[in-house]
Every structure is written in structure tokens, then in C-alpha cells.
Amino acid sequence: MPSEKTSEKNSEKTIEVTSEILGQFLAYLEVERGLSQNTIESYGLDLEQYINYLYLNSKNEKEFQREDIINYIDHLRDKGYSMSSICRFISSTRAFCKFLLIERHRKDDPSETVRLPKKWEQLPKALMFDDVLAILTTRVDTKFVLRDVAMLELMYASGLRVSELVNVEVDKLEMDAGFIKVMGKGSKERLVPVNERARERIKKYLKELRPVILNNKHSPYLFLTNRAEPMTRQRFWQTIKAYGQMAGVELSPHTLRHCFATHLLEGGADLRSIQKMLGHVDISTTQIYTKVSTEKVRKEYDKHHPRA
């Protein structure tokens, strides 16, 4: 039975819950399903918050019903969670319910008839090129500026996911050829182009800052913290947020990835090529960027046509 502790944080009541069943589920995802550590961590965070919500409403992780899932989805919407975050929660809950059935903790699946909402009702935000340029030319007063600039340039140059960016290894760089090998979702490796500007930023970081950070230590990872450890997604989010504020641009962790795809498409790139570079398994995921570009065309039409 989970232990619990009631607390107040930002005027919102929470319960610190330690669930043995949740721990077993996460171990199952790793051992039986072979999911990536990033996916397991994301599922764990989603379900910890959901179980907390259940306990605040006198329920628990073995006895919730479909209505509880729907109510929690409405709760997430009210708190301003993105559509993609809500979709991930539903996926987490579906996997958890199947586990509860397998382990005979319950005889029904309350998530069975819960459908994913249209994930892209809210279009990804793509900045104008001038805004991206402002970010890439901004210099925050930090001794790690060479690292930060290299990361930002690489993300926009190659459209990497944050998790891919922070896990890039030095021996995966093919500087002369202008490519980088990236380990994406499902442990699938792909080859992504890197432009000259990004390569120059990386070379400068490798020559002038990375050896200082390492201080005779060794690490296979390209981008390191002051402790010579690989960057975390959370730390990079803090970094990109600081650069966005300095440039006067609102950023999210995936903004530069969205800009990479949208700007390529607007420049005439083939959708299949963009799909390959982004590492999308299904081209329908890539097709969202055609909708983004269509929205931009519509705005330009409404703005400039004399009869619009």
C-alpha cells in the first residue's frame, strides 16, 4: 500500500505517494517491453501525478474507473497542459492498465474506450527566421557560452530532439562529411546533415572549452556540464530559456526543431527528406508541417490581399 504525506505547494494540495505497483510497472517497461529510459521516466512522471490526483479524490491506483481518467484529462486541460502532454498521459495510462490486467490486480481495463484527442489541434509554434537568428546570435554572460551556442546551432541545423541533442557522442560526429549520427526513438540510429556554421561552433567548443571542462577526465558525450557529466534535458531547457529571454523570443524545448522542419519545407525541401531527418516513423507526423506552412500562407493572404 502506498505511503502518503499531505503538503501545500503553490496553494495546491498534493500528496507524496510511493507506489509499489508503479515501481513494478516501470521495471516491467524496462525489462519486458525494452522501452527507452526517457520513455520510462516520462510514463513514471505522468502516473505519479495521476496517482497523486486519485489519492486526493479518495481513490487509488488499482480502483480507478474510466470516469476518473476523463476527469483527470479535464484537470490537465484546465491547468494548460499541451495536447501532446495529454496524449502522452493517455498512452501511459493505457500501458499501466494493461499491466494491471496482466498482473491480475484488476479484471477490467478502464482505459479501453478512452480515445486520443487530435494531437495536432494546436499547431507547433515555428518562429520567423529573424527570431531564430536573434537567438543564435545572442550571447549570455556565462563561461559555457561556447557550449550553449554550439548546442543551439546544432539543434536548428539538424532538427534534433532535446533527448538526442544532450546524448550526442563525440565519435558520432563526421565533420568533414557534414553529418552526425543520432540515436533516436526506439534505439534507431540515423544520419543527419550538419551545416557549416554549426560545425564551426562545435569545432570551437571542442578546441577551447570542452578540454577545460573535462580537466583530464574522459567522457564519450559531446556536451558536458561543469562536472564533466552529460547535459540533462532539464538543464538544456534552462539554457534555451535564458537565451530566448535575452533575444526577446518565447521558446519551448522543441521550438528550434519545429523551426528546422518548417523552414526547410518553406524553402522547398521534400517532405520525405524532412521525415528522414526528423526520424519520424510515420510520414503523417511530418505532414503537420505542411499545415503549419498553409496557416502562414493564409495569414499572409488575409494581411495583404485587398479583398481579403
UniProtKB/TrEMBL annotation:
Entry's localization field? Cytoplasm
Tell me where in this chain the Tyr recombinase domain is found.
122-302
This protein's source sits in the domain of life called Bacteria
Mind telling me which Gene3D superfamilies this protein's record contains? 1.10.150.130, Intergrase catalytic core
Q: Any idea which residues are catalytic in this one?
A: R161, K185, H254, R257, H280, Y289
Q: Name one Pfam family in it.
A: Phage_int_SAM_1
Annotated SUPFAM superfamilies: DNA breaking-rejoining enzymes
Keywords noted in UniProt: Cell cycle, Cell division, Chromosome partition, Cytoplasm, DNA integration, DNA recombination, DNA-binding
- Core-binding (CB) domain boundaries: 16-101
Query: Does this UniProt record's set of keywords contain Nucleotide-binding?
Result: no
Q: What does this protein do?
A: Site-specific tyrosine recombinase, which acts by catalyzing the cutting and rejoining of the recombining DNA molecules. The XerC-XerD complex is essential to convert dimers of the bacterial chromosome into monomers to permit their segregation at cell division. It also contributes to the segregational stability of plasmids.
Q: Which family does it belong to?
A: Belongs to the 'phage' integrase family. XerD subfamily. Belongs to the 'phage' integrase family. XerC subfamily.
How is the subunit organization of this protein annotated in UniProt?
A: Forms a cyclic heterotetrameric complex composed of two molecules of XerC and two molecules of XerD.
This protein's name: Tyrosine recombinase XerC
Q: Which gene encodes it?
A: xerD
